[in-house]
């Protein structure tokens, strides 16, 4: 298993809670009483398995920060039961996999990043802006850390709804990682997204450089063809 868990947002086969027409969604820290529910949702919506140590760190507030989404308007007496969550971890920027993409003023202290580990919303509550709100909680928390330079995450390359969400939220896709995920013996690519905060900025990402290079080559070819055409017909 990797140093950090690798998260997804996938369809759920679990029994879904009944939902009010206008649910009252609130956010709070994940606590020890959420352990069983947290494990259940991870089992049901993610195609990879997480170790018990990970869940213990989440619910006991070890080195992982977390937010739970709950529906206070539920009519079934489960108004504190998790219907969504996000877990994250603070890492040193210089030790992260995107250290080469982060620019910051070292005189202001050692830079950090917040890495989103897992993000999930049960199916009944999807398309209600809950995932976006959970990410905003992470961004708000990270922005309050003066030396934090960004929030980053991985997403499997075929998860188009999540990719669209991150782009709408101004996350930048900086890398494609080939074979990043191993699921049921099969490798899948991942995109790496970053949201820069607190004055941090990034040099051009490899994807940007690659796309720009292709554009420049095509542009050069087109210009050459155009000039040849003009010269042929006597234009200078």
From TrEMBL:
The keyword Transferase applies. One of its GO terms (molecular function) is histone acetyltransferase activity. One of its GO terms (biological process) is chromosome segregation. It is an enzyme of class 2 (transferase). One of its GO terms (cellular component) is Golgi membrane. Its EC number is 2.3.1.259, 2.3.1.48. Residues 25-198 form the N-acetyltransferase domain. Belongs to the acetyltransferase family. NAA60 subfamily. PANTHER family: N-ALPHA-ACETYLTRANSFERASE 60. This is N-alpha-acetyltransferase 60. It comes from Arabidopsis suecica (Swedish thale-cress).
């Amino acid at each position: 298993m990797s140093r950090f868990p690798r998260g997804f947002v996938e369809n759920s086969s679990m029994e879904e809670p009944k939902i009010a027409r206008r649910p009252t969604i609130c956010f709070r820290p994940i606590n020890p009483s959420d352990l069983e529910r947290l494990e259940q949702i991870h089992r049901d919506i993610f195609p990879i398995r997480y170790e018990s140590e990970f869940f213990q760190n989440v619910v006991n507030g070890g080195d992982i920060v977390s937010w739970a989404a709950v529906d206070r308007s539920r009519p079934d007496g489960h108004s504190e039961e998790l219907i969504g969550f996000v877990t994250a971890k603070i890492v040193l920027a210089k030790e992260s996999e995107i250290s080469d993409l982060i620019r910051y003023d070292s005189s202001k202290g050692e830079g950090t990043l917040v890495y989103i580990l897992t993000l999930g919303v049960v199916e009944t509550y999807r398309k209600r802006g809950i995932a976006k709100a959970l990410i905003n909680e992470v961004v708000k928390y990270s922005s309050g850390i003066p030396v934090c330079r960004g929030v980053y995450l991985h997403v499997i390359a075929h998860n188009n709804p999540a990719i669209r969400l991150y782009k709408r939220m101004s996350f930048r896709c900086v890398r494609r990682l080939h074979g990043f995920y191993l699921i049921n013996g099969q490798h899948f690519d991942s995109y790496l997204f970053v949201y820069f905060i607190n004055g941090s900025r990034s040099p051009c990402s490899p994807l940007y450089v690659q796309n720009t290079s292709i554009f420049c080559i095509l542009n050069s070819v087109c210009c050459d063809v155009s000039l040849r055409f003009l010269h042929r017909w006597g234009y200078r």
